[in-house]
Amino acid sequence: MAALSLLRRSASGPRFTERFPPLSPEGKGLLAAVIAMWVLATAWTGMRIFSRNIRKSAYYAEDYLYFIGFALFNGLCITYVLAICVGGAGNDIGRLSDHHMYHYTRISIANQTMYAATLCFIKISLVAMIQRVFAASTSLTLRIASWATIVVITCWALYTILLGFFICLPVGSTWGAATPTSCGNQTVAYSAVAVIDIISEVMIVALPMRLLSGLHIARPHKIGLFLVFGAGIVTIIFSCVRLKYALNIDFDNVTKSFAVASVSSILQAGVALMVASSPILRPVFDRTILHWLGVSAGPLHPVITPRLPTTMQAD
Q1: If both were cysteines, with which of 141, 146, 168, 303 could 180 make a disulfide (CB 3.0 to 4.6 Å apart)?
Q2: Cα angle vertex 185, ends 150, 247, to 5°?
Q3: Which residues have C-beta within 8 Å of that of residue 308, sequence separation ≥ 6?
Q4: pTM, whole model, 2 decimals?
């Protein structure tokens, strides 16, 4: 995102001479979103671990994929903070010094890489959970669809990462080591990131739906299952919002546009972590919220396992 902005920098006031540029309203808004989502994602991750400990449950492949995604999410949050406080994200590009742009160009490429890697691991974690929960299913369609979804997710992540390096030539212009001589259509390229992202999330949500609809269980239980596995719709909404911003990014004033567009990105990543953990948090809610309300939850069992085979369990 940063390379093309070096081609044209229109001044909108005197350049900042401070080592750390002042926080703009856009920068403050992004910083608040980063802090809020980090707190929530960390809380949900803690509850995920607590839930496993309550049930004395083993950790599965999806858990380790999730923890990698959470570690990358922490890195993503750090890049946002650095982009705002060191690179001047949120300010008009014309007011940033060469020192600020030196840091911004490098931080922005790290941010894009962290964003793609974070969502990649979180999404694959969700697919891995669905594969395990429905392991008893003999549906060839589900197995093929789940692996096809993983391929789409991986290709999306690679495309998103490589796009940051190759959208402008020479490649060194990505981090300010050279002056860009040519650039592709960034609006189309970054809109494609959001579109493929939406497609992959729709695929994840759709994976278990046919099998869930065929379960012979009580209607309230079936509705609960649809709500649990359909929670990914929330991330689809944020992806659609991100597409809207991608279509309207001002690449000539990318530092300011970055802060505005990135709010939806950090919300999407944080909510994705929460969605990935939610299916296994029943033990935590039983011991906290229901206990405080004085409601008896009955025997402690996974939220998604009413009358289902033992292999179809989220934890």
Answers
A1: 168
A2: 70
A3: 215, 217
A4: 0.86
pLDDT digits (tens), the chain, 315 positions: 544 444 444 446 789 989 999 999 999 999 999 999 999 999 999 999 999 998 888 999 999 999 999 999 999 999 999 999 999 999 999 999 999 999 999 999 999 999 999 999 999 999 999 998 888 765 788 899 999 999 999 999 999 999 999 999 898 888 877 888 888 999 999 999 999 999 999 999 998 887 777 766 766 766 766 777 777 888 899 899 989 998 999 988 999 999 999 999 999 999 999 999 988 887 776 666 545 555 444 444 444 443 444 444 555
* Run of H or E including 187: helix 186-206
C-alpha 217/C-alpha 312 separation (Å) is 14
* Alpha carbon 89 to chain centroid, angstroms: 20
Whether the Cβ atoms of residue 6 and residue 179 lie closer than 8 Å to each other: yes
As assigned by CATH, the class of the 4-293 domain is mainly alpha
Tell me how far apart the alpha carbons of residues 315 and 312 are, in angstroms, rounded to a whole number: 9
Domain boundaries, the chain: 4-293
Which H or E element spans position 170? Answer: none
Pair 4, 182: CB distance under 8 Å: no
